[in-house]
Hints:
Blueprint: H1 20-34, E1 37-39, E2 41-43, E3 46-48, E4 53-57, E5 65-70, H2 74-93, H3 96-111, H4 115-126, H5 130-157, E6 166-174, E7 178-182, H6 188-200, E8 205-208, H7 214-226, E9 234-236, H8 241-249, E10 254-260, H9 263-275, E11 285-289, E12 294-298, H10 304-316, E13 326-332, H11 336-349, H12 368-383, E14 387-391, E15 395-396, E16 402-403, E17 406-410, H13 416-419, E18 426-432, H14 437-447, E19 450-451, E20 453-457, H15 461-470, E21 477-480, E22 497-498, H16 509-513, E23 516-524
Parallel strand pairs: 1-5, 7-8, 7-10, 8-9, 10-11, 12-13, 12-20, 13-18, 17-18, 20-21
Antiparallel strand pairs: 2-3, 4-5, 6-23, 14-17, 15-16, 19-22
Helix pairs in contact: 1-4, 2-8, 3-5, 4-5, 4-7, 5-6, 10-11
Bound molecules: nicotinamide-adenine-dinucleotide.
Nicotinamide-adenine-dinucleotide binds next to α8 and α9.
Amino acid sequence: MFRVPPPVNEPALAYRPDSPERRLLAAEAQRLAERPSEVALRIDGREVQTRQQGSVVCPHRHDQVLARHALASEADVAAAIDAARRARGEWAALDFHARAAIFLRVAELAAGPWRQRLNASTALNQSKTPHQAEIDAACELVDFFRFNVHFAERLASEQPLCERGIWNRSELRPLDGFVYAVTPFNFTSIAANLPTAPALLGNTVIWKPSPHSVLSSHIVSELLVEAGMPPGVINVVYGDAQAITRQVLAREDFAGLHFTGSTAVLRGLFREVANNLDRYRTYPRIVGESGGKDFIVAHPSADLEALATAIVRGAFEFQGQKCSAASRLYAPRSLWPALEERVQALIAELRLGDPLEPGVFLGAVIGRHAYDRITEYQALARTSADCRVIAGGNADDREGFFVEPTWVLTTDPKHRLMQEEIFGPLLTTYVYDDAHFEQTLELVDQTSPYALTGAIFARDRAAIERASRGLRFAAGNFYINDKPTGAVVGQQPFGGGRASGTNDKAGAAFNLMRWASPRSIKENLAPPTDYRYPFLG
Length: 537
Ligand code: NAD
């Protein structure tokens, strides 16, 4: 009968040079950088250290070790699963408002006293500028906790019809087993949301964070403890992703997977779950959000300045390491000369470096593997006869993993650079004849296996409507005259179809529904007392 407070999106602070928030962020970053954090596994509320250790290094400074962390053995993983099993009864039986209060407290701590710890760890660990850290580790994280509580309350209040004399009720139970959350490196907010969204509905969880974001994930797990998350509800294990996953997915009471990451890994997880199907007590829920090949389509009527701004922000912010980052652009021939000149001028202004330094727009990419992959795509652009690098194109890994914002022009609209997810600051452009707008929409729809985000830029309303119809299945998040990144919880529920995932829309009621197993209850207030129906005479 209690009502949770109406949610509001957390406003982003500006981090102007010399602002108080910028000073606090710098001080916190300095504190975290002073010595490596010691990160333990968290099993049943206990911190578990291991002899074998992994380490996390700052992407923009090879000599800066940020954390040393435990690596889970088979016995540790088994202990984590047992802890989740034991904690389930009490956690699931807790009143919804009691669980909700923990979530609302996480939101308030993250918005207030923990804000700069979350931001500083994200800036150092994932190489984010103050703005990118703020919209992720502060605002989006806070929004997930405030809005999930609101959506879960709404789901629970959804009740069936009742005939006279009957009281029908619907109850949201957790899944009949534990949930496994596997999180990506690129968003601290996603790392926080994947284990906690199922927990809000009464599930207990094994959380395996990305090895590339151990420090920021660790701070999230400490925040959960501080807010009062009981022992055993969320158990955190770091270590060999494949081995941990094999062990977890082989358990009969595995009931759900909450995954965000690359498409190849998601497909592997689907296969492994399918192979184990006969072992499971229930049919496991799989919620998986994965890669993108996100597009911007410009119509001849597009506003040049708005388009150029969206290209630079959409393709190069956070080094293009957003699943929603613009990575293919379709530009009309009539607009091309002006657009090329304008965007080249903007790219020339973008500074690469330590993201906490004033004026820096791009930090480093996350690690060696990412650097090698992105620079291979740069080399492909240089060596393909039908491509020309028209801005950037270089990289430097001496101090950190720095890749220049790179812009490529291609005459082949089906080039690999137009189809494959690169996950770095590389944008490829195809110039189409103005008369072929309709065919270009078809091309956009057919070129890549992904369908995550996309944008149309036009002033002509008919063109906007044609694009909106023609690209209906090409993106789960579609933008009109805006960049394809930056979805806000509660405003643009996020997720894509086709190879991009199950489209269960993080931060929305759709997603939460997947973590509940409803029970329908019929109570007869005046049960019949004679078995004979009237038709019997
Ligand atoms: P990744 O697939 O390399 O790793 C994601 C997680 O899976 C990590 O925790 C990793 O340790 C684990 N993992 C890796 N191999 C595994 C295996 N064989 N078995 C089990 N687990 C395994 O992805 P990443 O580099 O961390 O993140 C980038 C990817 O995530 C991109 O493809 C991006 O598009 C996608 N992403 C999608 C969304 C979305 O909402 N659609 C959001 C963010 C990121």
